[in-house]
Amino acid sequence: MTAMAARMAVRALIGTALLASGAYAAMARSPQEDTLHAAPPAFPRSARSNFVERCGGCHGLEGRSVARNVPDLAARAGFFLCTPESRSFAGRLPNVMFARLSDEDLADVLNYVMFDLGETPTSKLAKPYTSQEVAAYRANPLSVTDLHAKRREVVGEMVARCQAPQAMLDYNRPRGRIPGRVEEMK
Ligand code: HEC
Q1: What distance in Å separates the CA atoms of residue 42 and residue 112, rounded to the nearest whole number?
Q2: Spacing, Cα 172 to ligand 1 middle (Å)
Q3: Signal peptide location in the record (predicted)?
Q4: Ligand 1: residue whose CA is nearest its atom 24
């Protein structure tokens, strides 16, 4: 066998081995597919049970809250991945940050909330939360005296930039503060 023929034979062998192992398919993926999350990121089953335990009491087991002063998460929370500010706002909310969960478990719960329970067109293009990101949020709590004003600001951006529904702007007209709006007080 000539040196050239030997090299070709080796290449053919490597090619077959790559195809057989599936590695070839992985190499052929475009870099874009690795940065866009067309499918929700993987999170363990415990994310759902941790959500039920740590968040479900207020937000409802399926992300539809019973109380008017707690926002729904179902089919809308994913819009919080719209801008860096809205993303960190959601991650730095007191009830989120102080949940008794490790950084890793909390990142999984947030990903479950944003990509599954609250999936939106925005979340389809967003990166998942990581435990390092959650640790950074915990070291830097939201320092706003008026949480509602801050929320209006970030949700306003979500509506303007990511087609979040207008209805997200006022989830919680405080009971009794708007005279004459009896229908709001259900
Ligand atoms: C004690 C009740 C309570 C618990 C427990 C709770 N939340 Fe919330 N959550 C709220 C309220 C009330 C808001 C509205 C903002 C605020 O006042 O904190 C909110 C806002 C949010 C938002 C932003 C939604 C929006 O439209 O403003 C997200 C996302 C969220 N919570 C996720 C979670 C997750 C994840 C957990 C569990 C780790 C959790 N929450 C636990 C009451 C709660």
Answers
A1: 9
A2: 12
A3: 1-25
A4: 71
pTM reported for the whole predicted model: 0.79
Residues 9-39 as b/e (b if ≥16 CB within 10 A, e otherwise) read eeeeeeeeeeeeeeeeeeeeeeeeeeeebee
pLDDT 10s digits, 69-125 = 899 999 999 999 999 999 999 999 999 999 999 999 999 999 999 999 999 999 999
Mean pLDDT, rounded, of the chain? 80
Give the model's pLDDT for residue 172: 58
Question: Hey, which CATH number is domain 46-168, 1.10.1040.10, 1.10.760.10, 3.30.1330.10, 1.10.3720.10?
Answer: 1.10.760.10
Give distance in angstroms: CA of 95 to centre of ligand 1: 6
* Residue ID of nearest Cα to ligand 1 atom 37: 55
Residues of the chain with CATH 1.10.760.10: 46-168
Residues with CB under 6 A from ligand 1: 54-55, 57-59, 69-71, 73, 77, 80, 90, 93-96, 99, 109-110, 113, 147, 151, 168, 171
Q: Are 129 and 91 in contact (CB under 8 A)?
A: yes
